[in-house]
């Protein structure tokens, strides 16, 4: 059976006004449930905890202090999982929350424990919903304790479970030869076979207000998975049912392979 990791970005899950994009979340749940019914094994890496927390607490931007961000993430993670639980239940789909720290990369024992968890969830047709454990992974200066961003996390998870495909959904149609938000004449690159310095030079900036990674972190993640023999598709998540088309082999977005 085919193993697919889906990573969905903050910009797809949260409206500009800070409210959860319930339509997108519902479509995502509908689509992933449908794929499980087709005997695909699905792992969802979901961003949006801080965004959801900001909305719930009535804040309009991330607090500067790390402990305050952690508190916002704790509130938002619960809110996000509550919504996922409700929407997935409508489609008869069970979920399990998996919060990870960089330990899964650093310690073989932790890695094996997490792998066992994934295997048993997938075996039972349960969708693991993964995020970084923000309450534990704090040290922003020592990058060894953090994944840093969910693009990286999704590639690490995909590599760890031997996924056939990582689908990254963002607020953009794919990877362009330059940032389309800055250059009107940017054109979509349909296929990337190798990621090198020239590729990184085509990505710029930090993305949207609530999004964190931007295109650089997506390229880094794609590079990591490609090196492990995996494939990555970057596509627009405005309508998450696009995942059906991507899994069926339609050429939308950018394929890194
Ligand atoms: P997400 O929250 O979905 O992870 P981000 O906002 O972090 O998304 O990253 C996507 C953004 O990256 C795009 O909206 C765009 O502004 C920016 N970007 C920079 N360079 C490029 C490029 N070459 N092609 C596409 N998008 C780019």
Question: How are the secondary structure elements laid out?
Answer:
Blueprint: E1 3-8, H1 10-13, H2 22-37, E2 41-46, H3 49-57, H4 66-90, E3 95-100, H5 103-106, H6 108-123, E4 127-132, H7 150-160, E5 165-170, E6 191-192, H8 197-201, H9 214-227, E7 231-236, H10 242-247, E8 254-256
Parallel strand pairs: 1-2, 1-5, 2-4, 3-4, 5-7, 6-8
Antiparallel strand pairs: 7-8
Helix pairs in contact: 2-4, 3-4, 7-9
The structure holds adenosine-5'-diphosphate (ADP).
Adenosine-5'-diphosphate binds next to helix 1 and helix 9.
Structure, described:
- By secondary structure, the protein is an alpha/beta fold.
- The chain has helices at residues 10-13, 22-37, 49-57, 66-90, 103-106, 108-123, 150-160, 197-201, 214-227, 242-247; strands at residues 3-8, 41-46, 95-100, 127-132, 165-170, 191-192, 231-236, 254-256.
- It has a single domain, classed as Carbamate kinase (3-Layer(aba) Sandwich), CATH 3.40.1160.
- It is built from 10 helices and 8 strands.
- Helix 2 (22-37) packs across helix 4 (66-90) and helix 7 packs parallel to helix 9.
- The two termini are 20 Å apart.
- Adenosine-5'-diphosphate is lined by residues 9-12, 170-172, 175-176, 178-181, 202-205, 207-208, 211-215.
- Keywords: Amino-acid biosynthesis, ATP-binding, Cytoplasm, Kinase, Nucleotide-binding, Proline biosynthesis, Transferase.
- Catalyzes the transfer of a phosphate group to glutamate to form L-glutamate 5-phosphate.
């Amino acid at each position: 059976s085919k193993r697919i990791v889906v990573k969905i970005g903050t910009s797809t899950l949260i409206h500009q006004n800070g409210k959860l994009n319930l339509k997108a979340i519902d479509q995502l749940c509908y689509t992933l449930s449908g794929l499980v019914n087709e005997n695909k094994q699905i792992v969802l890496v979901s961003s949006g905890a801080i965004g959801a927390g900001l909305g719930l607490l009535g804040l309009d931007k991330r607090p500067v202090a790390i402990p305050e961000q952690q508190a916002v993430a704790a509130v938002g993670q619960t809110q996000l999982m509550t919504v996922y639980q409700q929407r997935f239940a409508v489609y008869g789909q069970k979920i399990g929350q998996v919060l990870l720290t960089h330990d899964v990369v650093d310690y073989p024992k932790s890695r094996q424990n997490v792998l066992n968890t994934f295997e048993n969830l997938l075996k039972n047709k349960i969708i693991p919903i993964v995020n970084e454990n923000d309450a534990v992974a704090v040290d922003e200066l020592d990058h060894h304790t953090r994944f840093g961003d969910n693009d990286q996390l999704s590639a690490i998870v995909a590599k760890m479970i031997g996924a056939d495909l990582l689908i990254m959904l963002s607020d953009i149609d794919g990877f362009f030869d330059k940032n389309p938000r800055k250059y009107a004449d940017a054109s979509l690159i349909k296929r990337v076979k190798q990621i090198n310095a020239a590729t990184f030079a085509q990505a710029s900036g930090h993305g949207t207000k609530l999004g964190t990674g931007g295109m650089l972190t997506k390229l880094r993640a794609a590079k990591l998975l490609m090196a492990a023999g995996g494939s990555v598709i970057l596509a627009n998540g405005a309508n998450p049912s696009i995942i059906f088309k991507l899994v069926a082999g339609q050429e939308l977005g950018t394929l890194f392979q």
